[in-house]
Design brief:
homodimer, Arc Repressor Mutant, subunit A, D-Maltodextrin-Binding Protein, domain 2, 3 domains, 5-stranded mixed β-sheet, 3-stranded antiparallel β-sheet, 10 strands, about 15% strand, flat, DNA-binding
DNA sequence: TGCGGTTGATACCCTGCGGGTATGAATGAT
DNA sequence: ATCATTCATACCCGCAGGGTATCAACCGCA
């Protein structure tokens, strides 16, 4: 009896996200009536109401909310299976490493160097993406491993901590705040933070959600949606915005017109390496081993608990 | 282009497991030709050869092995989504706890008592299964949480350690070995261990595989495949077999004809509580909290690192 | 080396499911 | 009360997916 098809899940996710059969059908490139039928059939199969519909409003039932969440991960798993098989079939195997450019704690060159010397090493392809997309890239099979900032959505992933470094606030050197050696979050009230910046940590710092934090300041009036680093620097220089960057990144972009200042009560950036849970790939294991070794060698001599890998 | 259906994955898994189109078709309750076509179409979609077939032998390509593994987890995720939605739709929500009967470190009554007092508590349904099935039950949505022995296949699961207790060897009191206060694994050479026993840790102790360990002694001549506790006790009393049990279980079944002896070089049983990765259920969170609290209260006063929950 | 059995592939057919169009019916705003 | 919006129903159709018959290749065996 119970045997869902991914098509049914895709349909449901579309409707559940749009909360509108017509728009969902459009998004799925099909007509509305068959979509309605398919959802109804899905509910019949499961024996559960997923949506409450009036002609004016569609809402999720509790079961629908559960299914929305689980269907997304299931669809990820399915496309991941396909993509990983495709990748495994390529004649020259490669290791696909996802990261946000420059968000590597300054370790990437050393990691790649050391990794190249490993027995199980493969040529490395970098899969660049915006912040928060790395975990998803690993989850759905577009990358084999990733460097990313904690916390992140770790469903389906195993991960290992690499290094912790402070976030620094980038602001115009001419800004009065730049005169102070360090700042506190409260000092930033009313300042604009660009959306989608390399290390977007807005005032929503209290949230530790699994999805990437997203500045929800209503006052941010410009540079929304950009993640172009030169553009951000330009705006910072002009004093239009301020922005947080991991310390290692700021060392790569010293600019006289930009001051980088620590923020005392902002929790630091934790860089981690992540890979698909239960990965059996020797190349991935070697990369993780290399990355943790390089990070350990880099860390200031603090004999911390190494927390051995789970895989 | 790339959009796999669960049907395709089910077909592929059947063929990959049987390595025989005819038997796979029979298992899928269909004829062989459409199955062959479906697999061929799957390979065409992915652009990858999954199987090497001659008329006499079918083997997996590397890509096929990758897909077999990932397809299984994807199919788990899909049926899990359906089952969890079904469960969420039931009028009276309940917490389904998977465990192997008696494999609870003696904590279950206290955990259930304490849990009942929690705000977010729900009535608890016990989902009983054989050893090794608990993780799978959580993974595919038949249970919300589980008590199980580490190591286990933790793909898709988060878990928290509860207690560690020794495994004891159950053997006939009349056995000469029973005269000794403790044993070593080497002493057990040649003894029979029942397959599928509550804590099946045969000579394959070196293996830490993710799938349940499985005694592969060729010498075991009886009681293969049983997991009926009285039957095992009977055989142990007769001296036909010996068997490992967690210490807490042996305290529930004191029998004059059976001696329980520690085995010095056998690693202990680690009981853990596991739940679906990323679970957002307050009921599950409360249960995990309760279980860890009860376990901590039970543990002999060792101020260990509590390792706070990830969920 | 040639014969036969086993087993996957091919050819062809057909049914039913998934999708489309037209239209009805209910809801909520004005 | 009316009307626009939007989901459901009715009905139709094409083709994807499954079945049957058969071929062809591989391997074991004498």
């Amino acid at each position: 009896m119970n045997d869902l098809e991914t098509r049914q899940l895709r349909y449901f996710v579309a409707v559940a996200e749009e909360l509108h059969f017509g728009r969902a059908a459009e998004r799925l490139d099909m007509a509305q009536p068959p979509l309605s039928r398919a959802i109804r059939e899905l509910e019949r199969q499961l024996g559960v109401a997923l949506l409450r519909r009036t002609t004016r409003r569609v809402t999720l039932t509790p079961a629908g909310e559960v299914l929305l969440r689980d269907a997304r991960t299931a669809l990820d798993a399915v496309s991941s299976a396909g993509r990983r098989a495709q990748h495994a079939g390529e004649p020259t195997p490669r290791l696909r490493l996802a990261l946000k450019p420059d968000v590597d704690g300054g370790l990437l060159p050393r990691i790649l160097d050391a990794y190249a010397g490993e027995d199980a090493a493969l040529p490395v392809d970098l899969v660049l993406g915006r912040v928060g997309e790395q975990a998803q890239a690993v989850r759905d099979g577009r990358a084999d491993t990733a460097l990313l900032l904690s916390p992140f959505d770790d469903r389906g992933l195993d991960s290992e901590h690499l290094i912790t470094e402070p976030f620094l606030l980038a602001l115009a050197a001419a800004d009065p705040l730049a005169a102070r050696p360090s700042l506190r979050l409260a000092d930033l009230a009313g300042l604009s933070l660009p959306d989608g910046s390399p290390a977007d940590r807005g005032p929503g710092i209290g949230r530790h959600g699994r999805t990437g934090p997203r500045g929800d300041m209503a006052t941010a009036s410009t540079a929304q949606g950009t993640s172009d680093l030169p553009e951000i620097f330009q705006l910072v220089e002009l004093g239009s915005v301020v922005c947080f960057f991991p310390a290692s990144l700021t060392r790569r972009y010293p600019r006289p017109e930009i001051a980088y200042r620590p923020v005392d009560d902002l929790e630091p950036a934790a860089l981690a390496v992540a890979w698909p849970q239960g990965s059996r790939s020797a190349a991935v294991a070697a990369f993780v081993r290399t990355a943790t070794a390089v990070a350990a060698a880099t860390r200031p001599r603090s004999r911390e608990t190494p927390r051995t890998a789970t895989a």
